[in-house]
Amino acid sequence: MKLHIALMCAAALLAPLYAGGAADANEQRQNEVVVYAYDSFVSEWGPGPELARLFEERTGYVCTLIDAGDAAQVLSRAVLEKDAPQADVIIGVDNNLLPQALAFDVLEPYRPQALESVVSDSWLLFDKTGHLTPYDWSDFAIIFDTSSGLPAPQSLEDLTDPVYEKKLILLDPRMSTPGLGFVAWTLCVFGDAYLDYWRELKPNILTMAPGWSTGYGLFTSGEAPLVVSYTTSPAYHLEYGEGDQFQALIFDEGHPYQIEGAGILKGAANRAGAQAFIDFLISEEAQNVLPLTQWMYPVNKHVELPDSYKAGAPAAHKQLAADPEALPQAVEAVMQLLAQ
Fold it and tell me: Among 236, 24, 282, which Cα is nearest to 133's?
């Protein structure tokens, strides 16, 4: 009985401290915006650190960037934490992942007031539901090392030629949006026969890297002369004086595009801060950071592109879009085929 009374007294004494601690934590959270993003975005050479600094200067909010892996892993983490979200904003859900994000119901609708005045009309239809705000885009492409001595493939079909045996680096479509984009590409071009194409392509795949950073790193280190990436990727090498050894190949059959979006998580602890971050992300100040750090096109139509883009980022003649609803089943079928 004495122990019970003592514990009750201790609890009564500690209650104000816990209440104060909770209040302090709540106040701190209202001054902090937590953002889940993919690894290349938050890395020291990515746009994240500079965007966080500028956002803090402009708004007074503290911006905490958390590396949650590749984009599909970012979404998976948000889904796992759905009942108790730890972040306010999610970065990197693209047009192919959007249906999954909507199906899992992890996002709150939000449409920045400035969206229509700064974003090109072609990207305003990215998410008609208003759950995601586009912030960058590019077309997927095969990047070719011209120093390899191999002939440059002219189409997806050419990639199945035995001359490219173990010469192609792809990305795991379950984790990587460029990996998912390549599966979408094969669906667009080959339709119901896409698995026949993958059977022919299989001998030429060196590896399915877990994410873009790993895959592109293997490519630039000379492990293989072909990698899936973006038409904008060679601009990086030109910008930093590395020449035009790496080139984006433009295929007449067309290229799938990627639009990346940012969204507010349902139940976010700092809704006001999250909205401020989304507003900032499409501002000219923030969008000017993207070309030389994210190596994607900004969506803000008022941003002038650097010369390296004009020289090293060729435009696709034709843009393709697969049905994103069909992608999960296609990914499962492709991965089963490759595992055989």
Answer: 282
Any idea which of 121-125, 183-187, 195-199 has the lowest mean pLDDT?
Answer: 121-125
Strand intervals (E) in 254-315:
255-265, 297-298
Could you tell me if 194 and 320 lie in one domain? yes
pLDDT of residue 123: 76
| 329 is a domain residue | yes
Q: Is residue 25 part of a domain?
A: no
Quick check: 216 and 227 in contact, CB under 8 A? yes
Is 60 in the same domain as 102?
yes
Instruction: State how far the Cα of 231 lies from the Cα of 217, in Å rounded to an integer.
Output: 17
pLDDT tens digits, 166-186: 999 999 999 999 999 999 999
Listed in sequence order, the residues at least 6 apart from 226 whose beta carbon sits closer than 8 Å to its beta carbon are: 142, 143, 144, 145, 153, 159, 164, 167, 168, 169, 219
CA 278 to chain centre: 15
Tokens of 334: 């492709």
pLDDT (0 to 100) of residue 125: 72
Which residues are CB-contacts of 198 (< 8 A; sequence separation ≥ 6)?
186, 334, 337, 338
Phi, psi of 329 (to 5 degrees): -65, -40
Average pLDDT of the residues of the chain = 91
292 and 247 in a common domain: no
Q: Which residues contact 283 (CB under 8 A, 6 or more apart)?
A: 114, 118, 300
Is the overall model pTM greater than 0.70, yes or no? yes
Closest of 271, 254, 274, 239 to residue 181, by C-alpha: 254
pLDDT at 18 over 60: no
CB count in 10 Å sphere of residue 113: 7
pLDDT: which is higher, 13 or 102: 102
